[in-house]
Protein backbone atom coordinates (compact mmCIF):
# COMPACT_ATOMS: atom_id res chain seq x y z
CA UNK A 1 0.00 0.00 0.00
CA UNK A 2 2.77 2.46 0.83
CA UNK A 3 4.33 1.73 -2.59
CA UNK A 4 0.99 2.54 -4.26
CA UNK A 5 0.76 5.74 -2.24
CA UNK A 6 4.25 6.88 -3.24
CA UNK A 7 3.53 6.07 -6.91
CA UNK A 8 0.23 7.95 -6.68
CA UNK A 9 2.04 10.96 -5.22
CA UNK A 10 4.65 10.70 -7.98
CA UNK A 11 1.96 10.51 -10.70
CA UNK A 12 0.03 13.38 -9.10
CA UNK A 13 3.10 15.56 -9.44
CA UNK A 14 3.56 14.49 -13.06
CA UNK A 15 -0.10 15.00 -14.00
CA UNK A 16 -0.26 18.38 -12.25
CA UNK A 17 2.75 19.45 -14.29
CA UNK A 18 1.02 18.29 -17.49
CA UNK A 19 -2.29 19.91 -16.44
CA UNK A 20 -0.55 23.27 -16.08
CA UNK A 21 0.06 23.17 -19.84
CA UNK A 22 -3.70 22.79 -20.50
CA UNK A 23 -5.31 26.15 -19.64
CA UNK A 24 -8.72 25.11 -21.00
CA UNK A 25 -9.18 22.56 -18.22
CA UNK A 26 -9.95 18.86 -17.83
CA UNK A 27 -11.49 18.31 -21.28
CA UNK A 28 -8.29 19.56 -22.98
CA UNK A 29 -6.16 17.33 -20.71
CA UNK A 30 -8.36 14.29 -21.50
CA UNK A 31 -8.22 15.06 -25.22
CA UNK A 32 -4.41 15.14 -25.06
CA UNK A 33 -4.25 11.84 -23.11
CA UNK A 34 -6.71 10.02 -25.40
CA UNK A 35 -4.78 11.33 -28.42
CA UNK A 36 -1.61 9.87 -26.88
CA UNK A 37 -3.35 6.49 -26.39
CA UNK A 38 -4.55 6.51 -30.03
CA UNK A 39 -1.14 7.47 -31.49
CA UNK A 40 1.30 5.55 -29.28
CA UNK A 41 -0.63 2.45 -28.12
CA UNK A 42 -3.08 -0.13 -29.45
CA UNK A 43 -5.71 0.96 -26.90
CA UNK A 44 -8.47 1.38 -29.49
CA UNK A 45 -7.41 -1.36 -31.93
CA UNK A 46 -5.87 -4.06 -29.71
CA UNK A 47 -9.01 -5.68 -28.35
CA UNK A 48 -12.55 -6.57 -29.37
CA UNK A 49 -14.87 -3.92 -30.66
CA UNK A 50 -16.13 -1.77 -27.75
CA UNK A 51 -13.71 -3.17 -25.11
CA UNK A 52 -11.98 0.18 -24.80
CA UNK A 53 -15.33 1.89 -24.16
CA UNK A 54 -16.26 -0.56 -21.35
CA UNK A 55 -12.81 -0.12 -19.79
CA UNK A 56 -13.06 3.68 -19.88
CA UNK A 57 -16.61 3.71 -18.46
CA UNK A 58 -15.75 1.24 -15.64
CA UNK A 59 -12.63 3.21 -14.72
CA UNK A 60 -14.47 6.53 -14.74
CA UNK A 61 -17.38 5.13 -12.69
CA UNK A 62 -14.99 3.63 -10.11
CA UNK A 63 -13.15 6.93 -9.65
CA UNK A 64 -16.43 8.86 -9.66
CA UNK A 65 -17.69 6.81 -6.66
CA UNK A 66 -14.43 7.35 -4.76
CA UNK A 67 -14.43 11.06 -5.57
CA UNK A 68 -18.08 11.54 -4.59
CA UNK A 69 -17.70 9.67 -1.28
CA UNK A 70 -14.56 11.70 -0.44
CA UNK A 71 -16.40 14.90 -1.37
CA UNK A 72 -19.39 13.94 0.82
CA UNK A 73 -17.07 13.16 3.74
CA UNK A 74 -15.36 16.55 3.33
CA UNK A 75 -18.72 18.33 3.18
CA UNK A 76 -19.95 16.50 6.29
CA UNK A 77 -16.74 17.34 8.15
CA UNK A 78 -17.05 20.99 7.12
CA UNK A 79 -20.71 21.11 8.22
CA UNK A 80 -19.84 19.47 11.56
CA UNK A 81 -16.97 21.91 12.09
CA UNK A 82 -19.22 24.90 11.28
CA UNK A 83 -21.98 23.56 13.56
CA UNK A 84 -19.47 23.13 16.39
CA UNK A 85 -18.16 26.63 15.78
CA UNK A 86 -21.70 28.06 15.84
CA UNK A 87 -22.52 26.13 19.03
CA UNK A 88 -19.36 27.40 20.70
CA UNK A 89 -20.11 30.96 19.62
CA UNK A 90 -23.69 30.65 20.89
CA UNK A 91 -22.42 29.25 24.20
CA UNK A 92 -19.95 32.11 24.56
CA UNK A 93 -22.72 34.60 23.86
CA UNK A 94 -25.03 33.02 26.44
CA UNK A 95 -22.34 33.08 29.13
CA UNK A 96 -22.62 36.70 30.07
CA UNK A 97 -19.32 38.33 31.04
CA UNK A 98 -19.07 40.17 34.34
CA UNK A 99 -20.20 43.74 34.06
CA UNK A 100 -18.83 46.75 35.86
CA UNK A 101 -21.63 48.85 37.26
CA UNK A 102 -21.01 52.39 38.37
CA UNK A 103 -22.69 53.18 41.69
CA UNK A 104 -24.02 56.51 42.79
CA UNK A 105 -22.75 57.98 46.06
CA UNK A 106 -25.89 56.86 47.90
CA UNK A 107 -25.65 53.31 46.53
CA UNK A 108 -21.96 53.18 47.41
CA UNK A 109 -22.69 54.29 51.00
CA UNK A 110 -25.43 51.68 51.37
CA UNK A 111 -23.18 48.98 49.91
CA UNK A 112 -20.36 49.94 52.29
CA UNK A 113 -22.77 49.82 55.26
CA UNK A 114 -23.85 46.29 54.26
CA UNK A 115 -20.21 45.19 54.07
CA UNK A 116 -19.45 46.78 57.46
CA UNK A 117 -22.48 45.03 59.01
CA UNK A 118 -21.31 41.68 57.64
CA UNK A 119 -17.81 42.31 59.00
CA UNK A 120 -19.23 43.28 62.41
CA UNK A 121 -21.30 40.07 62.50
CA UNK A 122 -18.21 38.06 61.59
CA UNK A 123 -16.21 39.83 64.31
CA UNK A 124 -18.82 38.97 66.96
CA UNK A 125 -18.84 35.27 66.02
CA UNK A 126 -15.08 34.89 66.30
CA UNK A 127 -14.08 32.52 69.09
CA UNK A 128 -10.58 33.20 70.44
CA UNK A 129 -10.16 30.51 73.13
CA UNK A 130 -6.38 30.79 73.39
CA UNK A 131 -6.47 33.94 75.53
CA UNK A 132 -3.22 35.11 73.96
CA UNK A 133 -3.05 38.58 72.51
CA UNK A 134 -2.79 38.77 68.76
CA UNK A 135 0.24 40.73 67.59
CA UNK A 136 -1.70 41.89 64.55
CA UNK A 137 -4.92 42.97 66.21
CA UNK A 138 -6.14 46.33 64.99
CA UNK A 139 -9.49 48.13 64.93
CA UNK A 140 -10.98 46.08 62.07
CA UNK A 141 -8.77 42.98 62.13
CA UNK A 142 -10.21 39.82 63.65
CA UNK A 143 -8.69 36.50 64.54
CA UNK A 144 -9.76 33.36 62.75
CA UNK A 145 -11.60 30.62 64.56
CA UNK A 146 -12.85 27.19 63.79
CA UNK A 147 -16.30 26.92 62.26
CA UNK A 148 -18.90 26.08 64.87
CA UNK A 149 -21.33 23.16 64.95
CA UNK A 150 -24.29 25.21 63.66
CA UNK A 151 -22.58 25.61 60.28
CA UNK A 152 -22.63 23.09 57.43
CA UNK A 153 -21.25 19.65 58.36
CA UNK A 154 -18.63 19.76 55.58
CA UNK A 155 -17.28 23.06 56.95
CA UNK A 156 -16.61 21.77 60.49
CA UNK A 157 -13.04 22.12 61.68
CA UNK A 158 -12.06 24.64 59.02
CA UNK A 159 -10.83 28.14 59.82
CA UNK A 160 -13.02 31.11 59.01
CA UNK A 161 -11.35 33.68 56.76
CA UNK A 162 -10.53 37.11 58.17
CA UNK A 163 -11.86 40.36 56.69
CA UNK A 164 -9.05 40.30 54.09
CA UNK A 165 -10.04 36.83 52.86
CA UNK A 166 -7.02 35.34 54.59
CA UNK A 167 -6.26 34.07 58.07
CA UNK A 168 -5.02 35.47 61.44
CA UNK A 169 -2.86 32.99 63.31
CA UNK A 170 -0.75 33.27 66.45
CA UNK A 171 2.57 33.98 64.73
CA UNK A 172 1.51 35.46 61.41
CA UNK A 173 -1.41 36.78 59.41
CA UNK A 174 -2.15 36.92 55.70
CA UNK A 175 -4.68 38.55 53.38
CA UNK A 176 -5.31 38.09 49.70
CA UNK A 177 -6.94 39.71 46.70
CA UNK A 178 -7.13 38.50 43.13
CA UNK A 179 -3.81 40.21 42.40
CA UNK A 180 -1.81 40.12 45.67
CA UNK A 181 -1.13 38.06 48.75
CA UNK A 182 0.14 39.94 51.80
CA UNK A 183 1.82 38.06 54.67
CA UNK A 184 2.74 39.79 57.96
CA UNK A 185 4.70 38.22 60.78
CA UNK A 186 6.53 39.33 63.92
CA UNK A 187 10.27 38.80 64.31
CA UNK A 188 12.21 38.97 67.56
CA UNK A 189 15.26 40.73 66.09
CA UNK A 190 15.95 44.07 64.36
CA UNK A 191 15.15 43.88 60.67
CA UNK A 192 16.38 46.28 57.99
CA UNK A 193 15.16 46.68 54.44
CA UNK A 194 18.38 45.19 53.06
CA UNK A 195 17.44 41.82 54.59
CA UNK A 196 14.23 41.68 52.54
CA UNK A 197 14.01 40.61 48.92
CA UNK A 198 11.25 42.11 46.91
Automatic annotation (TrEMBL):
One Gene Ontology cellular component: cytoplasm
Keywords: Coiled coil
InterPro entries assigned to the protein according to its UniProt record, in alphabetical order: HSP20-like_chaperone, NuDC, NudC_fam, NudC_N_dom
Residue ranges of coiled coil: none
Biased composition (Basic and acidic residues): 66-103, 110-121
Domain Nuclear migration protein nudC: 97-156
Region (Disordered): 63-169
Domain NudC N-terminal: 11-52
Domain of life, source organism: Eukaryota
Sample GO molecular function, one term: unfolded protein binding
GO biological process, one term: protein folding
Compositional bias ranges of the Polar residues kind: 126-143
Gene3D superfamilies membership: 2.60.40.790
Name of the protein in question: Nuclear migration protein nudC
Organism: Rhynchophorus ferrugineus (Red palm weevil)
